[in-house]
Amino acid sequence: MTETIAKSAPGGPYGSVTYRRFLGRGKGFWIQGAVFIVVVFLVVGAIFPIIYQSFIDRPLYEAGQHFTLQNYVRLFEDAGFWLVAFNSFAFAVMTTVIALVIAVISAIVIVRTRVPLRGLMDACLLLPTYISPLVLAFSWVYIYGPAGYATLFVQSMVGATPWNLYTLVGMAVTESVALVPIGYLYCSGAMHQLDSSLESAARTCGAGPWTVLRRVILPMIRPPVLYAALLIFSTSLETLSIPLLYGGPVNIELFASFIYTKGLLDPHPDIGLLGAASVLVLCVMAVLVVIQYFALKNGKRFISVRGKAARRSTLNLGAIRWLGFAFVALYLLLGPVLPMLGLVVRAFTQVLTPLIAPYKVLTLGNFLTIFSVEQYVDSIWYSVVIALVGGVATTLLATLVVLTTKRSRFVLAGPLEFVALAPQVVPGIILGLGFFWMFALVPGMRVLNGTLIGLMIAFGIRAFPMAFGAIAPIVMQIGTELDAAARTIGADWWCTFRRVLLRMLVPGLYASFVLLFVQMVKEFTPAIFLGSADNQVIGTTMLQMWLNGNTGPVAALSLMQILICVLFVVVAKKVLKVNANE
User: Fold this and answer.
1) Residue 196 burial by CB count (10 A; 0-12/13-18/19+): exposed, middle or buried?
2) Could you list the residue ranges that cross the membrane (predicted)?
3) Residue by residue, what is the 3-state secondary structure of 449-497?
4) Can you count the helices (H) and strands (E) in the chain?
């Protein structure tokens, strides 16, 4: 069964290297095979029960199941679901348009024009990346909700309020603030790479600033705009926080809130209908990914930077730049800054209203409430533990997957990469539902339901495409000649990874871990189905407190979640800087 193969490398650092082989295969093959099995089991295991449930006539945990299409028939005959679909797509379209308009204008103003406070504006635009969409929704209610500070202030001044947050438009505006950083990052990156000689050539032909902007710059950034549009659109379709908080009181349901209502709030849930709706959402998300792939396939048409040095300078837009500056400044004030300021003030006050000066109702009672209730304190610790342990485990597993797919001859490398990236089309609430059914069905895994380990697994798979995307470019930047050099002195695949590649990947792995930590601390949707009364995370705890009317403690807990993310990022940057200097 087991044989020993000795490889000699005279004069090499390894000397005479001996590797054990099992069934004629080296250690690398079995590690790669184990990684394939684990990833496929977790990803497919979470998706398959949902698909299976949509095609059977009774809950999948009951005996006597029969194949049927009636779940889909009932879904399509349900007029309420068509309204849900219309609302979802209308919401996604409005969110995408609003977010992209803000992102493109901001990128042009901050990157390509000379205006004051560019650094501060850039930081404020990225502020929502540290904030959970759930927290952002809370902060907007504090300011712009029916009883919000700005709402009551405007009503006292003019007698009416020109906005209503609890509508599709209000939901889209709030969601767009959360997703503007996506569009801004892609567009600003493209702006930095554009060669200014193209603009100069247009100006020599008599084109004015507006013509240069419309005919040269905007067409050249079409690929990142398109990519950001598809990403924002797909993210909007799967969001739960804002539709649940804003749509619930006025009976506006979107895909995620529909699944939440049918699967968790309904005393007699229609499991078959729930499975069919989930599969339909999965199909829509998969189609969007395919569209994204083909839309960007011909990106070479927009190349403007070649091997030679490219000149980059600011764009002279004349008076237009001040209009752009005013637009971006107004957005930052009303979008992320003012609501976040309202969140902070609400955390330290008994009530937030323009009728009473905030300094008259200052209190630490909201924080005392958080720390006096064991369940609330536990939710903070559980979120941190899940993010720390789950972030490390996900980073390590993603590293092995990347090395298997990009730096090995494993025969199933292609399918493994496809499966590893598959969770990007699975909304968090559907993933949580899938793991809930998976843990209930697979022998020996029932004990994971309602545990921290189960939440770590779900959160890790949810963030797995992000980890893969963060690590893969770093691995691909390392030349394969290092692998070949290690092989010439007798190192196998596993030894090459441990002794050569791992040390070079450490900074990238740190960065991936920081990214995953922030994402996992903010995550909560899979925990809706997987959490228990004794194992809640910050997000589910805030949601429960909000539904119970405890808005002050919600603000305090929201602020703590933000501080955890910010402090961790600050500490991680210092650690990374120290390691880089060493």
Assistant:
1) middle
2) 29-52, 81-111, 123-143, 163-187, 225-246, 271-294, 315-334, 380-404, 416-440, 452-479, 500-521, 552-572
3) CCCHHHHHHHHHHHHHHHHHHHHHHHHHHCCCHHHHHHHHCCCCHHHHH
4) 27, 2
Average pLDDT over residues 484-496: 66
Return the SS3 of 363.
coil
Task: Give the burial string for 535-564 (b: 16+ CB within 10 Å, else e).
Answer: bbbbbbbbbbbbeeebbbbbbbbbbbbbeb
Long-range (24+ apart) CB contacts under 8 A made by 75-84 are 75/273, 75/276, 75/277, 75/280, 78/273, 80/253, 81/258, 81/277, 83/253, 84/253, 84/254, 84/255, 84/258
Residue at token pair 């809640």? 536
DSSP state of 297: T
How is residue 243 annotated by DSSP?
Answer: I
Question: Running DSSP on this structure, what letter comes out for residue 362?
Answer: B
For the segment 497-542, what is each residue's pLDDT rounded down to a tens digit? Answer: 676 677 777 777 888 899 899 999 999 999 998 988 788 999 999 9
Residues 6+ apart with CB under 8 A from 207: 215, 216
Asked if 459 contacts 521 with a C-beta cutoff of 8 angstroms, the reply is: no
Please enumerate in sequence order all residues whose Cβ is within 8 A of that of 258, keeping only pairs 6 or more positions apart, or say none.
81, 84, 277
Q: Which of 441, 397, 433 is nearest to 273 (CA)?
A: 433
8 Å CB contact between 512 and 467: yes
Burial class for 327, CB neighbours closer than 10 Å (0-12, 13-18, 19+):
middle
